[in-house]
Amino acid sequence: MAMSTDTQKLKQHLWEKIEKGPFLMVGLADGKSHSEPLTAQLDKDQVDTIWFFIGKDNRLAGGGAAMAQFVSKGQDFFACLSGRVELDTNPAMVDKLWSNAVEAWFPGGKTDPNLALLRFDIDEAELWESDVSLTGKLKMLFGGKIRGDEAGSHAVVANTKI
């Protein structure tokens, strides 16, 4: 089933917010692991996936069910993402996502022995927007009723694939 244009716009809105402030708190959904801040690496060709460069000794390197939380730079957009994390050993993805900022953390470059690329495949996302001017738009995308006293909105996206 094709995704509606409105849902696609909502996902693009999420990506735009992450591009402006790319930090997410990411943790395993095992009920005991703490989340940690990581810098998102975005690939427009794979909008259902967020990438992170981590050390091979990072607590997320073992993979598994995971959750990520995002608060936009202006603190007007919030997201909670669930899915799975796993290491990706594809050198082409490392090349595609590599930047000077990443190299600052991994001085050995792309062949740094501690370098790992973590792939976060999103299964579900819950999004909140606190900008009143966008409230109606987000509510309408998901068939919600809009009340005059609402100061924000909340949307659940069951599938992140465009």
From TrEMBL:
<feature type="domain" description="General stress protein FMN-binding split barrel">
    <location>
        <begin position="11"/>
        <end position="135"/>
    </location>
</feature>
<dbReference type="InterPro" id="IPR038725">
    <property type="entry name" value="YdaG_split_barrel_FMN-bd"/>
</dbReference>
<dbReference type="Pfam" id="PF16242">
    <property type="entry name" value="Pyrid_ox_like"/>
</dbReference>
<protein>
    <submittedName>
        <fullName>General stress protein</fullName>
    </submittedName>
</protein>
<dbReference type="InterPro" id="IPR012349">
    <property type="entry name" value="Split_barrel_FMN-bd"/>
</dbReference>
<keyword id="KW-0614">Plasmid</keyword>
<dbReference type="InterPro" id="IPR052917">
    <property type="entry name" value="Stress-Dev_Protein"/>
</dbReference>
